[in-house]
């Protein structure tokens, strides 16, 4: 009975966690839709304002590398509170930015809000049955990145009628409300590292670097995040370039929401299925990842081919590619919990993702700035980068399995 109650509470934490976390992703597409208005207000080029997305992603990547370690040192709830202050305060200040440089600084600070990712994952994963581990991670992932669609539709509706400032104020209220609920109702379990600390030991973070699986995870994320942030970061600009209105572009990015939700859940279920069939669960999940990464690679080739045809074709191909990309992420996020020993799971849950995320600011920079207006070549770079993800899957599939649990050392 106690286990059932713990499991139900774990699912509640999962739901309130992704409702809180989706605000981070909503800020990505909302900013993208607001680029023309911000460029006009700052009297600068749209490409320079778009650079703010790449700067945001740099901060995001750095936050993922150290986020799990921050959880180990200050705890889950303090990490979530700190991360959302880094999101909300700059969000309120963006409408008052008087120069592009100030805008870049605010976006970099906002990127650090994803130190919360490991905190959210650790708060519910230990309370949910292992057989639903992939599904739980996928629901959290899908619900969180679905915020990209919500941010797009809010910006598409608010900016033409109320202005860009109102858009950013609304997107500050949303995370604040859910943050208050999360902090008031969630009692996360102690992190494995804190248990180790009581015994006068500490996690051996060097093991994260030594394990080849960490670099396999990193390569997968390089491919996956390049495509995701390429789409969420510059889809609005691409739609404007093709002649679609701001409202239409907002509708297209809104379809990212069901694509992310459905794709991530299917990816998680697929990964759970192959994990059960495999002697080493991590190998089964990596094989599921391989399948959907190949589908993402093929789909991204067709983005510049089908998008100019008409609005329906543009919406359809964007939905399909985002679906497969979300499926890859849904299959990915239970992998660290299969690969790393318990005391390294907080740090390991985002370490490989953080390393792999370092190049992802290049996606909107390359697709939307450097190669602009040669959109064909920009989208095809995503197909090429997918090859790195395929290599990462193969590395994990060829690994010897879970490491020996000798990951803590005496102080």
* Structural class category: mainly alpha
Please state the second-level CATH architecture. Up-down Bundle
Highest-level CATH class: Mainly Alpha
> With helices defined by DSSP (H or I, 4 residues minimum), what is the helix count?
20
User: What's the number of extended β-strand segments?
Assistant: 2
Sheet with the most strands? 2 strands, antiparallel
- Round the mean pLDDT to the nearest integer and report it: 84
Number of domains: 1
Strand order of the largest sheet: 1-2
Please trace the helix and strand order, writing H or E for each element.
HHHHHHHHHEHHHHHHHHHHHE
Poorly predicted runs: 195-200, 403-411
CATH topology descriptor: Growth Hormone, Chain: A
Distance between the termini: 39 Å
Determine Rg (CA atoms, Å): 20 Å
Strand-residue proportion: under 5%
Shape: globular
What helical percentage do the residues reach?
over 70%
CATH superfamily: MFS general substrate transporter like domains
Characterise this structure:
- It is a single chain.
- By secondary structure, the protein is mainly α.
- The protein has one domain (2-410): Up-down Bundle (Growth Hormone, Chain: A).
- Helices cover 81% and strands 1% of the residues.
- It has 20 helices and two strands.
- It has helices spanning 2-42, 46-74, 76-93, 100-111, 116-125, 133-145, 147-162, 164-185, 192-198, 206-210, 212-241, 246-254, 256-277, 281-301, 303-306, 311-332, 335-339, 345-357, 362-370, 375-397, and strands at 201-203, 408-410.
- Strands 1-2 form a two-stranded antiparallel sheet.
- It is globular.
- The model is unreliable at 195-200 and 403-411 (pLDDT under 50).
């Amino acid at each position: 009975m106690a286990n059932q109650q713990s499991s139900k509470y774990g699912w509640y934490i999962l739901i309130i966690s992704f409702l809180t976390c989706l605000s981070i992703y909503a800020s990505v597409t909302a900013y993208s839709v607001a680029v023309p208005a911000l460029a006009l207000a700052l009297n600068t080029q749209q490409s320079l304002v778009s650079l703010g997305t790449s700067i945001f992603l740099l901060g995001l990547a750095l936050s993922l590398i150290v986020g799990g370690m921050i959880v180990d040192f200050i705890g889950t709830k303090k990490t979530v509170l700190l991360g959302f202050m880094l999101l909300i305060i700059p969000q309120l200040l963006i409408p008052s930015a008087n120069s592009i440089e100030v805008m870049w600084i605010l976006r970099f600070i906002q990127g650090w809000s994803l130190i919360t990712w490991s905190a959210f994952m650790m708060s519910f994963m230990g309370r949910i049955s292992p057989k639903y581990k992939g599904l739980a991670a996928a629901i959290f992932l899908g619900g969180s990145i679905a915020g990209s669609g919500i941010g797009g539709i809010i910006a598409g509706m608010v900016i033409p009628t109320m202005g860009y400032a109102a858009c950013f104020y609304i997107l500050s209220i949303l995370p604040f409300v859910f943050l208050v609920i999360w902090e008031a109702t969630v009692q996360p379990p102690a992190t494995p590292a804190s248990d180790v600390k009581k015994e006068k030991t500490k996690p051996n973070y060097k093991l994260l670097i030594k394990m080849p699986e960490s670099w396999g995870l990193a390569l997968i994320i390089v491919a996956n995040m390049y495509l995701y942030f390429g789409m969420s970061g510059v889809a609005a600009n691409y739609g404007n370039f093709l002649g679609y209105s701001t409202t239409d572009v907002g509708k297209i990015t809104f379809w990212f929401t069901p694509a992310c939700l459905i794709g991530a859940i299917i990816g998680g279920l697929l990964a759970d299925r192959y994990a059960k069939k495999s002697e080493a669960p991590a190998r089964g999940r990596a094989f599921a990842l391989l399948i959907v990464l190949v589908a993402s690679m093929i789909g991204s080739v067709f983005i510049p081919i089908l998008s100019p045809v008409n609005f329906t074709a543009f919406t359809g191909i964007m939905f399909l590619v985002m679906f497969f990309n979300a499926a890859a992420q849904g299959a990915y996020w239970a992998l660290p919990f299969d690969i790393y020993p318990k005391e390294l799971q907080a740090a390991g849950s985002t370490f490989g993702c953080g390393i792999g995320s370092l190049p992802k600011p290049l996606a909107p920079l390359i697709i939307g700035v450097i190669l602009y207006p040669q959109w064909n070549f920009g989208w095809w770079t995503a197909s090429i980068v997918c090859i790195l993800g395929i290599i990462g899957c193969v590395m994990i599939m060829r690994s010897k399995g879970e490491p020996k649990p000798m990951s803590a050392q005496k102080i």
